[in-house]
Amino acid sequence: LGETASFDLAVTYREPPPPEDQPLTAEQCELHIAEILSNGKITFEPGSARIDAASLEIVDAIAGVLDNCGAIPLEIQGHTDSQGREVMNLELSQERANAVLTELFARRVRTSSFKATGYGETRPIADNDTEEGREANRRIEFRLVRTDTSPDDETTLDALSGDADAEA
To answer: In sequence order, which residues have a C-beta less than 8 Å from that of residue 145 and are 6 or more positions away?
Structure first.
């Protein structure tokens, strides 16, 4: 092209794609963990806080999600059925929540914004009069700690359990 030549350029700006290593939002993290726990649960040896070997894969999957979450305020909740003494169930649920927190820490998950809380038998989700109900009540849950919500707000896990109730 010489100095006397003319030409036109058609330039279109396209927004670049977001980085692939972008951390998940806290809500996305809670949802992914809920999906993992809907396919299997963290179980323990009877009467102990030792996580069953078969449940370690679930802990690994949860750790994989949490690696992409950053520092989110998360509560690891331990729950038991109503068999046994209430005080012992409360202690056992706390020990189990602590065991899960320890396993996540051992997998190099940043746990400084997490807390482990045992609720014992105080928050059943099923009837403790049946074996199936007691099994459902023995559980670990992961909940975002929300500081600016009203009591009517539901968490992602509440929404998922509501969907399951609607399908039943």
So the answer is: 73, 74, 75, 115
